[in-house]
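Marked as duplicate of an earlier ticket. Keeping the data here for the record.
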Amino acid sequence: MICEICGKTDSRGFKVKIEGTTVSACPSCAAGHNKVAQVTPERKRTPPKKMPQKKREFRVDQEFDIDDEYGSKIKKAREKRGMTMEELGKMVNESESLIHRMELGKYEPPPEMAKKLEKKLGIKLISPHHDPEEQMQKTESKDLTLGDMIVVRKKDK
């Protein structure tokens, strides 16, 4: 409880009548006034409730690639369904101007938005990130074994 007279925070509070108005007061401020209307009981503080967190569709440690032709794919799929940019924007909770910028290729949608567009338009925009150089490095860095270094020759009889 916060005292409306001095501003202190206290777990105990009193309702005090001052000049015809009832205010909340701390014990020290309430002691100075002889007209205590009501004593408020002490409240135990309860920790705030935790809000359930929204599940993420994408893992942070995994990278995704957006198709290079995302703008034309979005535009073709939207036009095929006879939708305006405004209607598509409302379907995915985005502005018409943002849809326009995506179709022009000036704004690459983040993976979450691309996933929404995929569902609503029935197209494929994202794929897991594959780096060919990374794959080569993984295969080249394989440890050599003794069998890799030995050349076996057969004896002629």
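See parent ticket for discussion. The first strand starts at residue 13 and ends at 18.
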